[in-house]
Amino acid sequence: MSREQLVEFYRLMYLSRRTDDREIVLKRQQKIFFQVSCAGHEALLVAAGMAMRPGYDWFFPYYRDRALCLALGNTVEEQLLQAVGAAEDVASGGRQMPSHWSNKKLHIVTPSSATATQCLHAIGCAEAGRYFARHPEAAKKQAGDYREFKDVTFQGDEVTYVSLGEGATSQGEFWESLNTASNAKLPVLYVVEDNEYAISTPVEANTPGGNISWLVANFPNFYFAEIDGTDPIACYRAMVEAVAYCRAGRGPALVHGHVVRPYSHSLSDDERQYRSEEEVQAENARDPLAKMQLWLLREGILDEEGINRLEQKVDEEVHRAADRAMQAVLPSVSREAILRHQYSEDLRPSDARFDTQPVATADDSERTMAELLNHCLKDEMRRDERVVVFGEDVADATRDEALRAGEIKGKGGVFKLTAGLQTEFGSDRCWNTPLAEANIVGRAIGMAARGMKPVAEIQFFDYIWPAMHQMRNELAPFRWRSNGEWSCPMVIRVPIGGYLTGGSIYHSQSGESIFTHTPGMMVVMPSNALDAAGLLRTAIRCDDPVLFLEHKRLYRETFGRGAYPGPEYAIPFGKAKVVRAGKDLTVITYGAIVPRALQAAEKLERETGVDVELIDLRTLNPYDWEAIAASVQKTSKAIVAHEDMLSWGYGAEIAARIGEELFDWLDAPVRRVAAMDTFVAYQPLLEDAILPQPEDLYKAMEEMARY
Ligand SMILES: Cc1ncc(C[n+]2csc(CCOP(=O)(O)OP(=O)(O)O)c2C)c(N)n1
Q1: Nearest CA to ligand 1 atom 16
Q2: pLDDT tens digits for range 166-178
Q3: Which atom of ligand 1 is nearest to the CA of 171?
Q4: Is there an atom of ligand 1 within 6 Å of 165 CB?
Q5: Distance 194 CA to ligand 1 centre (A)
Q6: What does the mean pLDDT of the chain come to?
Q7: Catalytic residue set
Q8: CA 494 to chain centre
């Protein structure tokens, strides 16, 4: 390192520390509302920042990484604007806590507060860089769909940085990310900032043997370095070597830095409650700031006056930035402003462009939902090279020699929905992931943030839960928490539901309301082949994350088959379908209840003359309130029916809203028909009793008609 670099290194460390100190004062004055510091980690992080290239490489930093972000070009003012929650906070517009770094220009990607989720985003980001380098045509801007709003940049030799604390290495997502980084030899630089504590939990309680380097040492393809993270020179050397290894395409790297934590975990924590005085004193002696200052003096790089001048300039900079931040305009509290960027402001899936008609083709044979979904995936992959499909067992054959030779047919998904995709589009557009659902969704987020369009599959809805953290805390708030700067539009296809005869607890689950209760995510659930094709196309082309729920029982049902509608057929979200017009009462439903309710309604009319209007919502978020209201105003009676459990279910919301907004039109209390409040049992007699049957729907309709 040159003399200038060393001085700059110290300046950045000191700038970071003084910014923390200023935030601490502001917190004590109640001018900001949270503080977590970088203190003790500065040497490791300045080294990383100086070894990498902002706006070229990509960054998924931990909340400790103030010094990294300053080194990359983030300003103190920007950091303090986030601390006060200012409208002009570039990271989040006042939506996220301080130290949740995000800056589009510098390629610092919006983080959550969750520890280790970012590791999987970094993997997806690195995969996207590699993908675009191999498919440069895919990066081109295109009008007509999400690509209009998703600019792509890539370099070919870019490196993705991700950091975390030693405590966070206990999270499964860290290990799930190492799996893919290692297997795919991705250019990802991990930095583990080991300050020996996760709040009050010491490293040996998190990490067997007390040292993460020992545990990860056998992952293939990695460059490893374990260093004193308070020694600037050792840090810089390790970072430069690690970055060079990644940039040369040799694989990922992991730099494990032993650092200190002089300011407790955060301002809400007092470490004297759980650390001995002796331990704290020993740590203080390793403070990197004091160590580097001494070193600069000893080596004659700066004299005392030089240090004073540098520190005074930094102090003034921090002071000025704090003054400006105190004057900052605060965010608007209007409903509209608060909800802005929950979903894409550029392209709504309810847009008229998605309202197209099926076209007749030479082949007008009736197709199943499974077949039309498969056709739709193929059509969209042909049309848009950014679309990639991955998940468990979705490829035709990972060992593909026999497949290429035409000797084997291939699997293509446990329900065959993705059959033939790998064969037609190649193994870098359709592949099998490790058996790890968070890995699937977390990687998809990183890819989508870069402009790819992942169409990921979760094999069964019953196993979506390992990915729930990624879906609720990352995918859904990604755009909103970054105030519209970042987004990750993607599709997650999931086979769902029961009525399987023997599906039991773990192959029959519903649970859509858990996701409709998550702001930021579109939820779709078609009941027939044609709707499935049209809605999947909209899901793929739109600019928002979509959870696409495919009822397993409907995949190959005789009900609801349809002819291939052509490669442009799309259905806008939020538009219900009146499956059966009627005048006496309204049934609002979706998914596998549609054919069951239809059967019940037809029987009821035959037997009693009661004329039921049946509405298939098709999309659950957004949903078509206008269609519901128009129907209930006509019939004055409403039943909401779904396969999922009754209590706290999707129907509760619809019923409540009908009660609130349509009370004056009602001639009977709103009713719900749904599953019993339990899991689905294996024995078919039990399954039948637990899930709503046509007879239950018939009974509810008949009673309501008589009310
Ligand atoms: C998934 C998750 N669980 C719990 C928390 C609460 N939490 C915040 S920081 C933290 C400790 C993190 O320790 P470590 O990763 O070692 O980083 P350090 O703060 O020591 O730098 C915990 C438990 C969280 N943010 N996310």
Answers
A1: 167
A2: 999 999 999 999 9
A3: 1
A4: yes
A5: 12
A6: 97
A7: 507
A8: 15
